[in-house]
Amino acid sequence: MSVMQSPAAQQAERAVVIDGKAFAEGLRERIVVKAREFRELVGKAPGLAVVLVGDDPASQVYVRTKMNKAMDTGIESFPFLLPASTSQTELLALIERLNEDRHVHGILVQLPLPAHIDEVAVIAAIDPAKDVDGFHPINVGQLGLGTASLVPCTPLGCLMMLKHHLGDLSGLKAVVVGRSNIVGKPMANLLLQQNCTVTVLHSRSRNLEDECRQADILVLAIGRPNMIGPESIKPGAVVIDVGINRIIREDGSSALVGDADTEAVSAVAGAITPVPGGVGPMTVACLMRNTLVAACAIEGIAPPSL
Ligand code: GUN
After folding, report:
1. How confident is the model at residue 276, as a pLDDT?
2. Which contiguous run of DSSP H or E holds residue 12?
3. CA–CA dist 247, 244 (Å, integer)
4. How far apart are CA 10 and CA 195, in angstroms?
5. What is the spatial order of strands in the sheet that 173-177 belongs to?
């Protein structure tokens, strides 16, 4: 005889939704207080320069969100919205100016850049002390050594949510799907620092499903809508979905979805971040955190505890 569960019991078994939006708002409120103290001590606000080259619609949305959140947080933002025809020489000259500007504590160049600009050269030109993305080779190296203070925002936000949800991560098996410089690689490094056993999977990996099913922590940064289903999930695993993919439904409407099939995965996972409202807001809050951290270091103030 099969035992039928009540709808309430079935509901109780579904994954906890990790509310990145609420978590980010809590972090932002703590930064507001610290940014006010900074202003009172230094006589100016922490300053963030945001550079966008070209008219990629998604990048325009991200940059606008970052500038609005900076303003709401008591961080002064300096926007530089440049045409796609901007030359590499012009961009490097702007970065040189921002490196010297005493009102600018953080410099963010939104990626991707147009194809005629060498991304590596541009990132290398940013003063590492103002590199609030944590992409400069010096900051990447320090992350590898475990000594970085400016860590890429998206993986930092993921780690904060994981620690909040799970506490000590020591000894847990973490699988990161995706090996980008922005998410996958720094995420793997951060998890290693937390004493996780870390596997990084990518487009050439074999047995992706079996590897994912070993994970206590599964971080998805692939960029393919609904790619990961319940068959890839260990029961009770915590799933952090970094994917933000726009899809067009059959009825012509559009929607943002993650790399996981959230609905189906929620029947197996212990917890999952939603898309939207999971990782995205944490990325922006961590940018504010990094700007304040950079500003304190540059102005010779003790780092804020957040
Ligand atoms: N493009 C996508 N994610 C990011 C990010 O975190 N920082 C920058 N600068 N560009 C991005």
Report:
1. 97
2. helix 7-12
3. 10
4. 34
5. 16-17, 271-272, 238-241, 217-220, 173-177, 197-201
Does 248 lie in the same domain as 158?
Answer: yes
Query: Which two structure tokens, joined as six digits, stand for 59?
Result: 């990048």
Range of the domain at 68: 43-127
Q: Is 259 a catalytic residue?
A: no
Query: Which residue in this structure is represented by tokens 């004493």?
Result: 195
Q: What pTM was estimated for this model as a whole? A: 0.95
> Is the same domain home to 161 and 109?
no
Domain at 198, CATH number: 3.40.50.720
Predicted local confidence at residue 13, as pLDDT:
86
**Residue 175 vs residues 17, 172, 199: alpha-carbon distances, Å:** 20, 10, 5
Q: Residue 110 catalytic?
A: yes
Name the domain count of the chain: 2
Residue of the nearest CA to atom 1 in ligand 1?
111
Scanning 168-207, the segments in alpha helix (DSSP H) are: 184-193
Instruction: Decide whether any atom of ligand 1 lies within 6 Å of the 109 Cβ.
Output: yes
